[in-house]
Amino acid sequence: MIGLALSGGGSRAMAFHLGCLRALNDLELLDKVGVLSTISGGSVIGAYYAYSPGKSFEEFEADIRRFLRNGFHRKIAMELLKPKNLLPGLVACFCAHAQDGLGLITKREPKIPRFRSRTNAFEYVLRREVFPGLGMKSPKRESLDIVVGACELRAGTAFRFGSVRSGSWRHGELVGNNIPLSFAVAASAAYPIFLPAFDCTFDFKRANETHTARVLLTDGGVYDNLGTQVLEPRRNPNFSLHTFPCDYIISCNAGQGQEAGIGVPLGSGSRVKRAFEVVHRRVQDTAMHHLHTLKEAGVLRGFAMPYLGQKDDSLPWKPSVLVPRDQVIDYPTNFAAMSETWIETLSNRGEQLTRLLVSAHIPELLF
Q: Could you point out which of 46, 56, 99, 207 has its C-alpha 20 to 30 Å from the C-alpha of 314?
């Protein structure tokens, strides 16, 4: 089985992954993918691909380009300013911060959930514009399973929404799996510095017993930004809801790569932000190293990682038309509107790297 992972990275990831998918489609590998694992920005494009079974790749690409050109920032802001959202959102924000402060003093768990936030507005925009009427159990492309990764903040574990089942090892499987696709994708993309976590109560089942639990769901990149963990072979089904017998993994990584070492984070806000980025990158580096370990141990037959931040001089060979790394790594990871020029630039690098690295590292898949 071929497993395909689409990393986080906001709209930058969406455009980069568009090029990766285009290359895999041209190489006649996309239809051979058995499971798709997505995170954050990768979840927007990955879920749209998986749940648009009636669209050709050309139609799919045209839709993704339209989403990128339009962006989501302005629509989220307009949604937040609607009377039905503005006051409840402000009240919810006040209650959340007030309970946080009281909790530090009383050591008691906050009782009032954060019932309205920017993330709810993001979810509504996705539901209206991208995934209308779709849920995790909706019809999808034939023979393709999908897992949309999020992180559960209370337990500090992965929380994954799947086309077959959803939940986490800590709580068990969600009863019914009746989750809107827009909710799963918004949870996966709720970058914690900018988008509050979803505060939800779900019914779970484990070992034929049902229980109710409160969960806080945030960006899946906090736990596994590459989305490769769920694809690793020999995962124990006694501890994981999602196990797949992947022989090959193609991991599309929209990360920046090695830092330039510029900037001086002196203020508390910039220090916290920078510390989060460093931890985030270290976790991602560990996941990349683990793929090499699995390959060397013979557990994984092969993998390729089209990496936006890949140093061009380290490539097996350099195409004459390669979009250079330095031209793309500083593009922001937000969901603001993107120009056609940037869509072309980012997607072209994704396409070029995917063609090159699949041919170099797993050429047997091309025959």
A: 46
User: Residue 44 is inside which H or E element, if any?
Assistant: helix 41-50
What is the identity of the amino acid at 20?
A: C
Q: CA-to-CA distance for 306 and 291, rounded, in angstroms?
A: 13
Report if pTM > 0.85.
Answer: yes
Can you list the residues of the chain whose pLDDT is less than 70?
97, 99-100, 102-104, 106-107, 257-283
In sign, the C-alpha dihedral spanning 273, 9, 308, 299 is: positive
111 φ, ψ (degrees, to nearest 5): -95, -30
DSSP sequence for 290-318? HHHHHHHTTSSSEEE--BTT--GGGSSS-
Radius of gyration of the chain measured on its C-alpha atoms: 20
Of 5, 26, 20, residue with least CA distance to 351: 20
CA distance 303 to 92: 45
For residues 281 and 68, give the distance between their C-alpha atoms in angstroms, rounded to a whole number: 25
C-alpha pair distances (Å), 367 with each of 259, 304, 338: 38, 16, 37
Judging by beta carbons within 10 Å of its beta carbon (0-12, 13-18, 19+), is residue 298 exposed, middle or buried?
exposed
Residue-wise pLDDT tens digits, 250-283: 999 998 766 655 566 656 666 666 665 666 666 6
How does DSSP classify residue 201?
E
